[in-house]
Amino acid sequence: MRLAARARHAASQAATRERSGLAMQTTRDNALFLRTVRKTHYLWPVLGSQPGLNAALDALDWGNTPVAAATSEISHGRTETRTIRVLPAPEGTGFEDASLAILIERYVTVMKNGQRVMRNREAVLYITSLAAEDATPQDLLAFIRGAWRIEHTHWSAT
Fold first, then answer.
1. CA-based Rg of the chain, rounded to a whole angstrom?
2. Which of 13, 32, 36, 141 is deepest in the core (most CB within 10 A)?
3. In whole angstroms, what is the distance from residue 82 CA to residue 49 CA?
């Protein structure tokens, strides 16, 4: 990781008490450590490294859950739209103080022959110890977007 990317990452971590991270950090032991020892919150993506948790979150009623917040950016000839849906975390995840389950959907559209065309769609599930009164959906969406920017900078710089 370049020094500038490390500095941005360190500043991002210092600016908040929440810890966001890569999917490989999404473990029950890490959640327990952060909540009991560090007395901080976690906000983690849930991917294939946690198949049981991924299945439990994916089984939630996302189809009937309204979009709680959205952002849209136009850059490099494409429009990126991100939406967030938030539900209570299911019981029995084994993650210390798991409070909310989050679904982030990202849509990218481009102009083709004068019309907007969907280029890709991505959906990522998250779990957090933050309660609804700790952070608004807009806050969560902004924080997750910030983590994506850091990772993009990291992978672009290598």
1. 16
2. 141
3. 24
